[in-house]
Amino acid sequence: MAGINRQIQLVELPKGKLSPTHFKLAEAPMPSISAGEVLLKTILISLDAANRAWMQGATYRDALESGQVMAGGGLAEVIESKAEGFAVGDLVFADTGWQEYIALPAKNLNSVPRLEPLSYLISVYGIAGLTAYFGLLEVGQPKAGETIVVSAAAGSVGSIVGQIAKLKGCRVVGIAGGAEKCKWLVDELGFDAAVDYKNEPVHKALKAACPEGIDVYFDNVGGDILEAALFRMNNMGRIACCGAVSQYDGDAPKHGPRGIPGLIVTKRLRVQGFIVSDFYDKREAATAELVKWVAEG
User: Fold this and answer.
1) Which of 295, 274, 244 is nearest to 141 (CA)?
2) CATH number, position 64
């Protein structure tokens, strides 16, 4: 198939803050496919905090290098197939990178249903929604009546974590930056309380918002906020470590969270990191439940 493939390439690995100058728009030949492969046209790209973390070195995937197509997941449509089980017009979620077309082995694709609006397939039914679902329910294992605290609570993952926790009968406290975000969490999403880390000491605010302590902390930011949550955890509490956005962009933190490992031992805390693909064998059931919850408002 002749044509041009537009790409966003990472021209330089950032040494400080990420900026548009680290990327460029480039054109490459249209890829072709071999037996067992599928040609995809990208519809929507999932922009995730993890994209920035990948620029710092090897994680659960290889380190990014200058000059390559920027990595990232995307919703794509099959436009040519030489693989059993995939036909023209099928929708998939795949590691497309930031480009218009890509050829991939069929084994690397995840089929997704055609649900409207399509944007939900990369948000509440995509990486953000599934990360929230599995991180809270599989890792955090909340019980009705427990107190759940979520950092970056106004973000794509945190906002869904809080709503699922409310559906499970928990008391939910969100940590976000700014009065407007905190008001949105409480008034629109139904959080029980919100802590504004930009305008109040988090240690003191968490003590007031969680007088009976924290049973599950869903951590998206790491750093000082993780430290503050550690000191409020109840015995046998669970911490689901999803990300550390406070450390992805810019200078490295001056110190790590204090209280580790002392508080983890004395309070018998379970601290578990995870990535969404750890639970992909349960993806269909999770998506069905998320679709049901969205339909119910």
Assistant:
1) 274
2) 3.90.180.10
Q: What is the DSSP string of 143-212?
A: -TT-EEEEESTTSHHHHHHHHHHHHTT-EEEEEESSHHHHHHHHHTT--SEEEETTTS-HHHHHHHH-TT
Element (H, E) at 289: helix 283-295
* Rounded Cα gap, residues 66 and 55, in angstroms: 9
Give the C-alpha separation, 82 to 8, whole Å. 27
Q: What is the pTM of this model?
A: 0.86
pLDDT of 106-152, one tens digit each? 999 989 989 889 999 999 999 999 999 999 999 999 999 999 999 99
- Which two structure tokens, joined as six digits, stand for 263? 């508080």
142 and 215 co-located in one domain = yes
Note whether residue 83 is domain-resident. Answer: yes
Main-chain dihedrals φ then ψ at residue 229, nearest 5 degrees: -65, -40
| Cα dihedral value 65, 68, 70, 76, nearest 10 | -140
By residue range, what is the domain housing residue 272? 127-277
Radius of gyration of the chain (CA): 21
* 135 and 110 part of one domain: no
- Pairing of β 193-196 and β 214-219: unpaired
Domain co-membership, 117 together with 137: no
C-alpha to C-alpha distances, 254 to 182, 246, 258, 275, nearest whole angstrom:
27, 12, 12, 26
**Mean pLDDT in the chain?**
92
Distance CA 208, CA 190 (A): 18
Last residue of a domain, one of 122, 150, 171: 122
Task: At 202, give phi and psi (nearest 5°).
Answer: -65, -40
Q: Does residue 249 register a pLDDT over 90?
A: no
> Residue 202's closest CA among 245, 42, 210?
210
The DSSP output letter for 30 is: P
Last residue of a domain, one of 90, 122, 154: 122
